Amino acid sequence: MYSTKIAGVGKYVPERIVTNKELATMVDTSDEWITERTGIKQRHWFEPGKDTTSNMGVKAARKAMENANVTKDDIDFIVFATLSPDYIFPGCGVLAQKELGMDTIGALDIRNQCSGFIYGLSVADQFIKTGMYKNILLICSEVQSNTFDLSDEGRSMAVIFGDGAGALVLQRSEDDSKIINTKMHSQGEYAEELILAEPSTNHSKRIKDDILTDNGIWPYMNGRNVFRNAVVRMTEVINESLTAANMTKKELDLVIPHQANLRISQAVQKKFELEDDKIFNNIQNYGNTTAASIPIALCDALEQGKIKKGDVLCFCAFGSGFTWGSALIKW
Questions:
Q1: Is residue 131 a contact partner of residue 158, using CB atoms and an 8 Å limit?
Q2: Could you please report the per-residue DSSP string of 31-72?
């Protein structure tokens, strides 16, 4: 049985920065209102005609491959996690494979929303552990700014999310650096608590005649229930990873949670009694970039010198489904 390490990371965010002040000119909100409830100060929005989910992912992937000192010919497989693919089908994995000029390697798309990075990381880890592949490219990318209801009614969702991409090169490890474990869970009874319902194959016509006046075309979130479950489940799954590794919270050097809401991260920090330098947050600069949030945060943490060789990291995420998961890493 082999071990898997993170050999390289990369990120890409669109050039356009939308501050809370600018957003307040579009909907009835304010910098104070958004900051107090989410911790977000700004987010990046894609440029139509320039940025797409797949090409943003490719830009992040190229940086990750350069960082890992590998070429496109070294990559054996692609895993692409997103809730906002370019098309209903085919998935973004094959679009990335084409744009990167790779050989006819396999490409797998993951649709686990905010938990997509953890699920994708776990899938890639299994492929490498079993010896099937040596180098896997994990891409997480989202275009969400064109998905939300920019009206006063939709402001609670519209202020939270942003666009961006992060990517990792996962590689067979030849030293102590490794993914120690990954844990994944779901609870489908809450599937409709965080949902984008339309268009749907449940109807005789997928695109209904009244779809533009149907609120189902806008994402819906039961914010209180999501918040409560996120704190409980992320806390549980971090403990699960630590218990499986026979480790304690004192051995954690850094926790990088999914950047959903600063208050969720702070609640998790409080549960574990973590010092400020033991948890990394960058939601204030990007908003919630869903599947891309943890890899973008990992890039920023590395750029800021927050991670060193031998550190023990924990990633954790919670999102629509409900799905949640964790990954324990020896850097």
A1: no
A2: HHHHHHHH---EEEE--TTT--HHHHHHHHHHHHHHHHT--G
288 is catalytic: yes
Residues 118 and 219 in one domain: no
Q: Are residues 191 and 162 in the same domain?
A: no
Q: What angle do CA 150, 151, 157 make, to 5 degrees?
A: 60
Could you read off the pLDDT of 156-204 as tens digits, one per residue? 899 999 999 999 999 999 999 999 999 999 999 999 999 999 888 988 8
Instruction: Give this prediction's pTM.
Output: 0.97
Question: Catalytic residue at 114?
Answer: yes
Q: Which of 258, 285, 314, 316 is catalytic?
A: 258
Distance, C-alpha 138 to centroid of its chain: 11
Query: Which is it for the CA torsion 293, 295, 298, 300, positive or negative?
Result: negative
Catalytic residue among 112, 229, 288, 316: 288
Q: Do 165 and 240 reside in the same domain of the chain?
A: no
| Active-site residue (options: 20, 55, 114, 299) | 114
Query: For this structure, is 282 an active site residue?
Result: no
Q: Identify the CATH number of the domain in which residue 29 sits.
A: 3.40.47.10
Q: Is 71 exposed, middle or buried (0-12, 13-18, 19+ CB in 10 A)?
A: exposed
Q: Cα torsion for 84, 89, 92, 93, to the nearest 10°?
A: 140
